[in-house]
Amino acid sequence: MITEKITSENDMSVGQRKQLKRFFEDMFGALDFDSMLDSLCLSKDSAQEIIEKINLIKPQIEKSVIDVLVENSIVDKRFKLFADLGVITVPENYVHGEQLGSLNQDEFYYFNDAITDANFPNPSRVLKPGDKLWVRAFKQVVPGDTSSEDRMGFLKKLNAVFTGAQGASLVYQQKRSQLPKGFWYCSFDEKERLWKDSGGSHRVPSVGAVSGGGFVFRLGDFAGPWDGSYVILCFCDKKEL
Q1: Could you report the per-residue pLDDT of 226-239, keeping only the tens digit for each?
Q2: Considering only CA atoms, which of 223, 89, 105 is closest in space to residue 167?
Q3: CB-hemisphere CA count at 13 Å for 73?
Q4: How far apart are alpha carbons 40 and 51 in whole angstroms?
Q5: Is the pLDDT of residue 4 over 50?
Q6: In the chain, count of helices (H) and strands (E)?
Q7: What b/e readout covers 223-233, taking b as 16+ CB neighbours within 10 angstroms?
Q8: CA nearest neighbour of 123 among 204, 184, 9, 239
Q9: What tens digit of pLDDT does each residue of 13-58 get?
Q10: For residue range 128-174, what is the model confidence (pLDDT) as tens digits?
């Protein structure tokens, strides 16, 4: 299926893409595959098993390469990949203006009643049915605190999109079993896109994975400090041909 690529001014340039493609062609073309195969000392049966499974192990190889590239592309070393949650797909019956209201609040240990569709109507990226997003969680690995501006700047370097409370709700619905326990998973956005409470504070939606196994959906303070217990959700477009 052919789908339209979603691009932004932060996407890599045509020249950069050509350079990286040439690098991979040079690297893999220069490998001595005969020596590599000799060093494996494969039996006929082992070689045949690999040949039969080649389509299964190809994604594992690709993921290993991607992981290395991601690790080396992170220019802000205060944050490190904590969990690769894979791809979420926005359901076909998804309605942006009804998503938060459709959550079963009884499933949560605590659910902030200000998390409503009326309070979070306008995230930077309004999701649509069929959208695919690659979701990763990044953890602060330095002592002390970082600001929301620090974290937003980091996300922009990763070409993230900001999906607001709706994105956090989909992570809960589709990926909650993969969230390491004892941390808050925060869905940041531009301050003016966030709900402002009666005290003038802009609030950041956060899903908490409680150590006992339950979940909390609460709101943090954009102006407040963030430590390592508050993990950054990073949503990136999954571009497909």
Answers
A1: 999 999 999 999 75
A2: 89
A3: 14
A4: 14
A5: no
A6: 6, 7
A7: eeebebebbbb
A8: 204
A9: 777 777 767 776 676 676 677 776 776 677 878 778 877 887 787 7
A10: 999 999 999 999 999 999 999 999 999 998 889 999 999 999 999 99
Amino acid at 26: D
CA-based angle 226:151:15, to the nearest 5?
Answer: 165
Q: Give me the count of residues in the chain.
A: 241
Q: How far is CA 194 from CA 123, 128, 158, 236, in A?
A: 7, 19, 21, 19
Please state, in angstroms and rounded to a whole number, the distance separating the CA atoms of residues 21 and 15: 10
Q: What is the CA radius of gyration of the chain?
A: 21
Q: What is residue 147's predicted lDDT score, i.e. its pLDDT? A: 97
Amino acid at 7: T
Separation in Å, CA 221 to CA 13, 187, 190, 203, 215: 36, 12, 13, 5, 19
pLDDT, residue 241, reads 29
Q: 3-state SS of 73-125?
A: HCCCCCEEEEEEEEEEECCCCCCHHHCHHHCCHHHCCEECCCCCCCCCCCCCC
- Dihedral sign computed on CA atoms, order 171, 172, 178, 179: positive
Strands 110-111 and 215-221: parallel
> Rounded to an integer, what distance in angstroms lies between the CA atom of residue 10 and that of residue 238?
15
